[in-house]
Amino acid sequence: MHIFGIGIDVVEIERIEESIEKFGDKFLDRIFTPAEREYCDAQKSPHVNYAARFAVKEAVAKSFGTGIGKELSWLDMTIVRAASGEPSVELSGAGRNFAEKNHIAQVKISLTHAKLYAAANAVALAVS
Questions:
Q1: Distance between the two ends of the chain, CA-based, in angstroms?
Q2: Could you give the CA distance from residue 11 to residue 67 in angstroms, rounded to a whole number?
Q3: Could you list the active site residues?
Q4: Is 58 a known ligand-binding residue?
Q5: What is each CA distance from 79 to 2, 18, 20, in whole angstroms?
Q6: Half-sphere CA count of 111, side-chain side, radius 13 A
Q7: DSSP summary character for residue 128
Q8: How far, in Å, are 37, 112, 119, 121 from residue 64 at the CA level?
Q9: 120: part of which helix (H) or strand (E)?
Q10: What's this model's pTM, rounded to 2 decimal places?
Q11: For the segment 23-53, what is each residue's pLDDT rounded down to a tens digit?
């Protein structure tokens, strides 16, 4: 395998919290899948978890070199958490198609959050 691309993103948690307060389900439904919403809403501070997932999605889009748009939409990615705590990304729709077309076999992600910020990185790995 070789590195297809890498991505990183940092987001202000307050910005995501304000978007949730201002736009509610309209914002959440546009950015997050039902599985992500279920996970985040079950946490003590949902907005922190939403911010981290927002950052991961941006990082994945950067690792693809596409950004969010035609090749990859917000809802083409679901950020899941294994029982061990390890996060991963499940691709669907146009995101899966892009990955297959470009021989991307795996996207490794990492996310973190502190008091004010959430951050994430992604490495897209392709087979030759």
A1: 6
A2: 15
A3: 62, 113
A4: yes
A5: 23, 21, 18
A6: 25
A7: -
A8: 24, 21, 18, 12
A9: strand 117-126
A10: 0.95
A11: 999 999 999 999 999 999 999 999 999 999 9
